[in-house]
Amino acid sequence: MFRSFFLSRRWALWSWGGLLVLVALVFITVQQTVKLNTWYGEFYDLLQKPEQAGGLAKFWGFMQQFAWIAFPYMLLRSLETYLASHYAFRWRQAMTETYLPRWQKTSETVEVGAGGAHAGIVHSDLVGTFQGHGHCLVAV
């Protein structure tokens, strides 16, 4: 499963390059989240004591700061979600291209379809395994 994607020359750019880009995006969005949390603290301090903290002028300054933090964050998170989905698709494609020729050459009868018990077990096992790894990747 890992070999078909991470150790293949065909998928090297997607596997390692995509992983690097996704980790970098996660790192950047975490930094943005930290900035946003800091902004929240200062902003709510202003709302509690507006006269002492600078009044209406400082309020609009905070709105501008929020825009500079939140809008890039939303764009980066959208890009991260899109690339993670595309990365997962490429990984599944690599696994399919690796296992399909083996499956076609088997001498055993393989029951596939809606009623196939083996197909359902294998499918749910592969989906569960990949979803676990995908969430770990995005959580990193």
What is the secondary structure topology, with strand pairs?
Layout: H1 3-6, H2 12-48, H3 50-53, H4 55-105, H5 117-139
Helix pairs in contact: 2-4
How would you describe the overall organization of this protein?
This protein has 5 helices and no strands. It is an all-alpha fold. The longest helix is centred in the middle third of the chain and has 51 residues, at 55-105. Helix 2 (12-48) runs antiparallel to helix 4. The protein has helices at 3-6, 12-48, 50-53, 55-105, 117-139. The two termini are 20 Å apart. The protein is 85% helix and 0% strand. The chain is rod-shaped, with a radius of gyration of 24 Å.
Quick overview:
Helices cover 85% and strands 0% of the residues. The chain has 140 residues and is mainly α.
